[in-house]
């Protein structure tokens, strides 16, 4: 997932990632600050740092750390589900005066270790092949883990659907029995009324 978004200096921005358990997540970001004179975003924002906070689906904090204007963070999920990744600048200016606009470039990589270019350029081709094989095996493990997670979600959804269908069926049966009971009661009441009035 690679994206960029705009944010105020003191504004917190969050994204939600659905991550399987025991999965490594690596995030890289770069902050640019709006320059009024140039009417463009500067290449970097020196002196400005970012608080990165990661929470689990049960609102437990996995990571909470201050980084520089450009940084890399990583964490390993221990639960399956939607993890929230939030970024907020460490600007010391009051909210009323922190009007500077920021552009944050964010790249999130889920479940794989990325190839190191220095290793790829190594002279020893055997080591390079071994490294690539390890990388492929790691990717296969990650894909298998994601498939298992999707299977669990599908099974959970199927159980919920079956329970809902069962409840609807029982509710329809109860409604039918109530309508039949009311019908029988109305017929009996009318019959008793006609007998009491000697119309039958």
TrEMBL record:
<feature type="transmembrane region" description="Helical">
    <location>
        <begin position="168"/>
        <end position="187"/>
    </location>
</feature>
<dbReference type="InterPro" id="IPR009038">
    <property type="entry name" value="GOLD_dom"/>
</dbReference>
<feature type="domain" description="GOLD">
    <location>
        <begin position="12"/>
        <end position="110"/>
    </location>
</feature>
<keyword id="KW-0732">Signal</keyword>
<dbReference type="Pfam" id="PF01105">
    <property type="entry name" value="EMP24_GP25L"/>
</dbReference>
<comment type="similarity">
    <text>Belongs to the EMP24/GP25L family.</text>
</comment>
<dbReference type="GO" id="GO:0005789">
    <property type="term" value="C:endoplasmic reticulum membrane"/>
</dbReference>
<protein>
    <submittedName>
        <fullName>TMD11 protein</fullName>
    </submittedName>
</protein>
<dbReference type="InterPro" id="IPR015720">
    <property type="entry name" value="Emp24-like"/>
</dbReference>
<keyword id="KW-0472">Membrane</keyword>
<keyword id="KW-1133">Transmembrane helix</keyword>
<keyword id="KW-0812">Transmembrane</keyword>
<keyword id="KW-0256">Endoplasmic reticulum</keyword>
């Amino acid at each position: 997932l690679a994206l960029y978004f705009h944010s105020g200096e003191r504004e917190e921005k969050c994204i939600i990632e659905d991550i399987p358990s025991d999965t490594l997540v690596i995030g890289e970001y770069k902050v640019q600050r709006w320059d009024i004179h140039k009417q463009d975003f500067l290449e970097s924002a020196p002196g400005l740092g970012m608080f990165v906070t990661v929470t689990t689906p049960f609102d437990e904090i996995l990571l909470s750390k201050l980084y520089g204007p450009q940084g890399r963070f990583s964490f390993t999920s221990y639960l399956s589900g939607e993890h929230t990744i939030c970024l907020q600048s460490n600007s010391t200016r009051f909210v009323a005066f922190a009007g500077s606009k920021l552009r944050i470039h964010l790249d999130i990589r889920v479940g794989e270790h990325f190839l190191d270019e220095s290793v790829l350029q190594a002279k020893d081709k055997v080591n390079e092949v071994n490294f690539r094989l390890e990388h492929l095996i790691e990717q296969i493990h990650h894909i298998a883990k994601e498939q298992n997670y999707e299977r669990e979600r599908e099974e959970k959804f199927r159980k919920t659907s079956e329970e809902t269908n069962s409840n609807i069926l029982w509710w329809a049966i109860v409604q039918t029995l109530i309508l039949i009971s009311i019908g029988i009661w109305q017929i009996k009441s009318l019959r008793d009324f006609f007998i009491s009035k000697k119309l039958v």
